[in-house]
């Protein structure tokens, strides 16, 4: 049985890595770093930058992430992908034969819309887990726009672009945050009375922000997102929408 540490590293800014996470990275014996192809090589590079900034002496081993089979139904596709990742982790760790804890650097926080914990549960034997929280994309987004996460006594729904597109606005929510939305699901909503705050590459030098009434900001965000993705070869973004439009058209 191994000790597996899942370390939240925030949204791309090395300064977001907590002191607890820095200490853990200095104590780890092995760090696994995923490679997601040449177009996303800067994601692996940033992990290496964080390790150097923390003065981590850990051995670093990179591994190639498998590609999801888009021909399968969504649930089966994700389950098989997780199985394949778990197998790669197990094989990589076995080959490395670490003499101490194994660490994985997880974007944002391991507990919020991230599957690292579910993948770890597939290992046999299940490792002794330690989870270190990180700054989430939600925190980075609201901080970048200087807005509160919730309205006064208001309900917040955190959902996916897939569900937002299929089911529309959650009826009881004053505020909706969309994660994992690669198709700008907000464009399928009635924009009347909705305000959107959007951000990509949050916390990174490439950070891009936009905000305003959804009817006007939405088309702008779609264009900005496409241009940023073409420029970098990848994109990580999220957005928050609220029914109560604040005074003024900030970002418009």
TrEMBL record:
Its EC number is 2.1.1.152. GO terms for biological process: cobalamin biosynthetic process; methylation. It comes from the Bacteria. Residues 4-215 form the Tetrapyrrole methylase domain. The keyword Hydrolase does not apply. It catalyses: precorrin-5 + S-adenosyl-L-methionine + H2O = precorrin-6A + acetate + S-adenosyl-L-homocysteine + 2 H(+). InterPro entries: 4pyrrol_Mease, 4pyrrol_Methylase_sf, 4pyrrole_Mease_sub1, 4pyrrole_Mease_sub2, CobF. GO terms for molecular function: precorrin-6A synthase (deacetylating) activity. Gene3D superfamilies: Cobalt-precorrin-4 Transmethylase, Domain 1, Methyltransferase, Cobalt-precorrin-4 Transmethylase, Domain 2. It comes from Roseovarius tolerans. This is Precorrin-6A synthase [deacetylating]. Pathway: Cofactor biosynthesis; adenosylcobalamin biosynthesis. Keywords: Cobalamin biosynthesis, Methyltransferase, S-adenosyl-L-methionine, Transferase.
């Amino acid at each position: 049985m191994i000790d597996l540490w899942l370390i939240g590293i925030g949204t791309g800014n090395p300064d977001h890595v907590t002191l607890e996470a820095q200490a853990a990275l200095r104590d780890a014996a092995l760090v696994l770093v995923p490679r997601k192809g040449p177009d996303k090589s800067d994601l692996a590079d940033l992990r290496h930058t964080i390790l150097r900034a923390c003065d981590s002496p850990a051995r670093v081993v990179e591994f190639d992430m498998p590609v999801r089979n888009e021909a399968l139904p969504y649930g089966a596709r994700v389950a098989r992908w997780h199985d394949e990742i778990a197998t790669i982790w197990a094989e990589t760790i076995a080959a490395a034969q670490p003499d101490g804890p194994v660490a994985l650097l997880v974007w944002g926080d391991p507990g919020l819309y991230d599957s690292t914990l579910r993948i770890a549960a597939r290992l046999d034997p299940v490792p002794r887990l330690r989870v270190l929280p990180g700054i989430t994309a939600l925190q980075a987004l609201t901080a970048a726009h200087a807005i509160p996460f919730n309205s006064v006594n208001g309900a917040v729904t955190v959902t996916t672009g897939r569900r937002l597109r299929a089911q529309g606005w959650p009826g009881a929510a004053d505020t909706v945050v969309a994660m994992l939305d690669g198709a700008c699901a907000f464009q399928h909503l009635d924009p009347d009375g909705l305000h959107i705050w959007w951000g990509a590459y949050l916390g990174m030098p490439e950070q891009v922000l936009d905000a305003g009434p959804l009817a006007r900001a939405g088309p702008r965000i779609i264009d900005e997102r496409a241009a940023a993705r073409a420029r970098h070869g990848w994109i990580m973004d999220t957005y928050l929408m609220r029914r109560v439009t604040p005074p003024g058209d900030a970002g418009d």
